[in-house]
Amino acid sequence: MKHVLRSVCLALLLAPLPLLARTPAPPGAEVYFITPQDGAVVHNPITVRFGLKGMGVAPAGMQKDATGHHHLLIDAELPPLDQPVPNDERHKHFGAGQTETVITLPPGQHTLQLLLGDFAHVPHEPPVMSEKITITVE
Ligand SMILES: [Cu+2]
């Protein structure tokens, strides 16, 4: 009996971790652009300030309830919400806990959207994301 129990325990230990267990977001949590505003006409370099209500900012890697770090999506659709946010020119991570950044974009219309990620860069459940705003760079 004892060795059966032991194999059961071992099997549990070796079972893959549930990859889809997403970090819960508190009700009412909100991420938004302080600047620029939707429809703004801006010039390079562009200062982007991130606002967050109902949650705190924590650096990537730090697992703490009701916290996350910002991701700025530039001219990008929402990535899959059950996986880490991609890391490239269109998906910028602010894993040190930054709440603003300065970007340079080619002249013309661009979209910006904020998406909060947990310690492992995975969006919360439900996802905490801003409206997608459109700006014009002159
Ligand atoms: Cu991230």
Account of the 3D structure:
The model has no long low-confidence stretch (mean pLDDT 91). Helices cover 9% and strands 35% of the residues. By secondary structure, the protein is mainly beta. It has one domain (22-137): Immunoglobulin-like, CATH 2.60.40. The strands form two sheets. Strands 2, 4, 5, 6, 8 and 9 form a six-stranded mixed sheet that branches. Strands 1-3-7 form a three-stranded antiparallel sheet, with no helix packed on it. It contains one helix and nine strands; from the N terminus they run αβββββββββ. The protein has one helix spanning 2-14, and strands at 30-35, 41-42, 46-53, 56-57, 67-74, 91-93, 100-103, 108-117, 133-137. Bound molecules: copper (II) ion. Copper (II) ion binds at residues 60, 69, 71, 85, 93, 95, 117, 121. Copper (II) ion (CU) binds at residues 60, 69, 71, 85, 93, 95, 117, 121.
List the helices and strands and how they pair.
Blueprint: H1 2-14, E1 30-35, E2 41-42, E3 46-53, E4 56-57, E5 67-74, E6 91-93, E7 100-103, E8 108-117, E9 133-137
Parallel strand pairs: 2-9, 4-5
Antiparallel strand pairs: 1-3, 3-7, 5-6, 5-8, 8-9
Copper (II) ion (CU) binds at residues 60, 69, 71, 85, 93, 95, 117, 121.
What keywords describe this structure?
138 residues, mainly beta, Immunoglobulin-like, 6-stranded mixed β-sheet, 3-stranded antiparallel β-sheet, 1 helix, 9 strands, elongated, binds copper (II) ion
Short description, anyone?
The protein has 138 residues and is mainly β.
**Which CATH class applies here?**
Mainly Beta
Shape: elongated
Unreliable runs: none
Q: Compounds present?
A: copper (II) ion
What distance separates the N and C termini? 75 Å
Please work out how many helical segments DSSP would assign: 1
Annotation, overall tally of beta strands: 9
CATH architecture level-2 label: Sandwich
Q: What is the domain total for the residues?
A: 1
